[in-house]
Amino acid sequence: MVTNVVDLRSDTVTKPSDAMRAAMAAADVDDDVLGADPTAHRFEMEMARITGKEAALFVPSGTMANLISVLVHCDTRGSEVILGDNSHIHIYENGGISTIGGVHPKTVRNNPDGTMDIDKIVVAIRHPDGALYYPTTRLICLENTHANCGGKCLSAEYTDEVGEVAKSHGLKLHIDGARIFNASVALGVPVHRLVKAADSVSVCISKGLGAPVGSVIVGSTAFIEKAKILRKTLGGGMRQVGILCAAAYVAVRDTVGKLADDHRRAKVLADGLKKIKHFRVDTTSVETNMVFFDIVDSRISPDKLCQVLEQRNVLAMPAGSKSMRLVIHYQISDSDVQYALTCVEKAAEEILTGSKKFEHLTNGTTRNSYGH
């Protein structure tokens, strides 16, 4: 009998491990705004090494990491960034690049695998002759893994090709690598190789890696120096931040080796959902730790399903009006997956056979998974 909550809402929900808490308690700290926190410095150096970049900067969140990166590259108001129409930066970050930075988004359609067609990226680049009328293209953004496309991985070869396009047109390339370690493990390619073509990368430490707080921006030394100024401007300069960086260091050290198990469990979950007649799932699309599935029976809504699941200590969130997203993380076990599958099947049957019992469960009351 599972007594703990099986939380599949996102990989952002993990609790700090005992090792993380111990590292936080023992962290050697100082004032990081003054550049004096030794634990923050050690962690940033390690992230720069892993990603193959000159320098790194710890920031409070992935949204801030992407915002800072875009604003460093697009330091003139009226700049334009080319990015996917289904990307996290474009949809789930409050339009910050526009509202705060005065940067105009130029969207290109994301393919189901998270890529954008190279020829469409090229077409989206503004010609210098139109500078009197149009924004000036300065940046291209990719997302790896691509969350809204099901946690799909972008290959090093594809990223290199986009990097060549950027370079040939005098543009910069930023990668939203919130889950870049998941991509690295799934593809069997080191992180530094996946981001070789990028001028900057944001890496979230509090998603699949399980740290309680934070993201890291990596890039050239000059880029990071500018990023530090913007971090302070946006209120992200923190003092004894080594307490957080200590947990982040442990997360990178201990959790990367567990991501393959997360991916394996996601496939098991997808295979199990496919056997339930009320749902449709493309098991071949599961590459990392996310499972999307459609509800084919109109009598079952994502909201009602989530609410019935919660009564059985399984937490989930809708992905759309007729779809769900479940996310595996390192605090989900094999038995948790099997328990969740059992509960999902029973919850669907309960909704179908006990409609009066669930009349009090209304649609639209469950928070969706957007942005997590």
Automatic annotation (TrEMBL):
GO terms for biological process: glycine biosynthetic process; L-threonine catabolic process. It holds the Pfam family Beta_elim_lyase. GO terms for molecular function: L-allo-threonine aldolase activity. Residues 7-294 form the Aromatic amino acid beta-eliminating lyase/threonine aldolase domain. It catalyses: L-threonine = acetaldehyde + glycine; L-allo-threonine = acetaldehyde + glycine. Gene3D superfamilies: Aspartate Aminotransferase, domain 1, Type I PLP-dependent aspartate aminotransferase-like (Major domain). Pathway: Amino-acid degradation; L-threonine degradation via aldolase pathway; acetaldehyde and glycine from L-threonine: step 1/1. Its cofactor is pyridoxal 5'-phosphate. It is an enzyme of class 4 (lyase). Keywords: Lyase, Pyridoxal phosphate. The modification N6-(pyridoxal phosphate)lysine is found at K207. It comes from the Eukaryota. Belongs to the threonine aldolase family. This is low-specificity L-threonine aldolase.
